[in-house]
Write the structure tokens for this entry.
Amino acid sequence: MIDLHCHSLYSDGTDTPEALARMGDGIGLSALALTDHDTLEGLPAFLAMQPQVKTRLLAGTEVSCRFLGRSLHVLGLLVNHEDTRFAERLAELRTRRDDRNRRMIAKLQELGCRIEMADVEAEAPDQPGRAYLISRVHFAKALASKGIVNHPQQAFESLLCDGGRAWVPMDELEPATAARWIREAGGVPVVAHPGRFAGGAFVWDEAMKELRDLGMEGLEAYYGEYAEAQQKSFKALAAKLGMAMSGGSDYHGRNKPAIRLGRGRGSLHVPDELLEGLEQRRREGTWH
Ligand code: AMP
Ligand code: MN
Ligand code: MN
Ligand code: MN
């Protein structure tokens, strides 16, 4: 069993990279990829755990794209975490994110919420010298801490969800750019949790073909929050389009308490063979 999608406190999870490596080992995963949003900064500490664990530790990241007017997440699996050009490109995305965050604070204030950026930053773990990233998860926690909503999920429902009253879209990448950046960093671009796109009620056949033609090499057919039927239909779609399959829990620690590493909501089981398929894509890549 493997897990190719999880977050540490370098983005919007709550565990250290070291703790994730140990947890993966503890539950007997044969491979685990750390895929923090828009950053590679947790990877040195994560990969340095390799001598201490049997689980193969793999590099990854997750970036946000704009596709059909909505946000689409893309995983960069097996990237070279020491690629400086890729690190700079991700740093540019974090600058855009900071800008979005400032505008979201202004919008919340316009709506009458008494909240400052410092309140949101207080929800992200603070360790000097480490560049943690601020995501909407931290906004949700701050709104709950200040009593503006009853709990973080309510902040998403009433304010922060895509299209919500306080939502400000990020200046997101074109899918073709994301795919090129990931391939140029030696990785495999994979469409993350397609079942969450457009609330799940979306006919993927044509759209996924378009994404494949824009450079996406795989899709996340196994996911922590999928029902059996969704997994089945994405497996069939990958086979039909000749795309590789990936799978992961999207574990976020205490920020998504219902999701467990490796097991998702309990029944997730991502087979080892998927990693072989992704590694083959990486070897055959014409870009590196
Ligand atoms: P950001 O990258 O800052 O736009 O934040 C996106 C993150 O917020 C996602 O990776 C999820 O962890 C979380 N998120 C987005 N939409 C929702 C939602 N409707 N309910 C709960 N969490 C969400
Ligand atoms: Mn997240
Ligand atoms: Mn995602
Ligand atoms: Mn994720």
Remarks:
- Residues 92-160 form a domain with the DNA polymerase; domain 1 fold (CATH 1.10.150).
- Residues 12, 37, 64, 135-137, 156, 161, 252 surround adenosine monophosphate (ligand 1) (CB under 6 Å).
- The beta strands are 2-3, 31-34, 56-67, 70-77, 188-191, 218-223, 244-248.
- The chain has two domains: 2-91+171-284, 92-160.
